[in-house]
Design brief:
Layout (H helix, E strand, L loop, with lengths): L1 E5 L2 H7 L5 E7 L2 H4 L5 H14 L4 E7 L5 H4 L3 H5 L3 E4 L3 H10 L5 E3 L1 E11 L2 E6 L15 H4 L26 H11 L38
Parallel strand pairs: 2-3, 2-4, 4-5
Antiparallel strand pairs: 1-6, 6-7
This protein binds iron/sulfur cluster (SF4) (2 copies).
Amino acid sequence: MIVGELKPFTEIKKMIRGYQRILVAGCGGCVTVCQTGGLQEAETLARLLNMDDPGTTVESLAVPRQCEWEFLEQLKTTVQRCEIIVSTACGIGVQAMNEYFREIQTLPALNTRFLGMPVEHGVFVERCQACGECMLHLTGGICPVARCSKSLMNGPCGGSKNGRCEISPEIDCAWQLIYERLKALDQLERLLVLQPPKDWSHSRDGGVRKMVREDLMLDDGE
Ligand code: SF4
Ligand code: SF4
């Protein structure tokens, strides 16, 4: 899931200064799970904005996933009544809204943080950097790109202490975890296989990424 956190209220207020008819649009996907941008949070933000400036009209609603245009159709009537949209989705949702509703601007209420998961109530941690070349089958299911502070691909840097990373004692050394996991799986021999440098053209450094699934595409005229 994509993990995001709400921007400071003052920052959101500054963005919408001068607008009177506002729509706060939530997303029923990832940001609902991390409780920062679902319907409940969109409604709360709308109430706060309205309390802060009672002269404004602030509506709120949410769609199942803001990153899919097919769900945005249902917002059309509400959008027509508004001057500005404040989205509590991640950055993908904000951009999907801006591409779909070209006549009106959608502003971000969240800071999109990372791809992660909840490990305990209220604690979310990064687990994937979407590098485009998954190697979890080689590392016991623990991602060294996302979880090693130096994204090392071939074993530890040598700085870990008591299983903790030298960059931050608050996090586990990813390569210690990988070692322990492979040992438990009786697959330590995997560590002897050198991984070549990553082909970063599969990642962000190579530009905007795209995936085409021809089997899902519609024929012309369908
Ligand atoms: S818009 Fe962002 S937060 Fe919402 S479902 Fe899509 S990826 Fe997840
Ligand atoms: S201590 Fe471990 S997690 Fe930290 S940078 Fe070195 S190898 Fe990576």
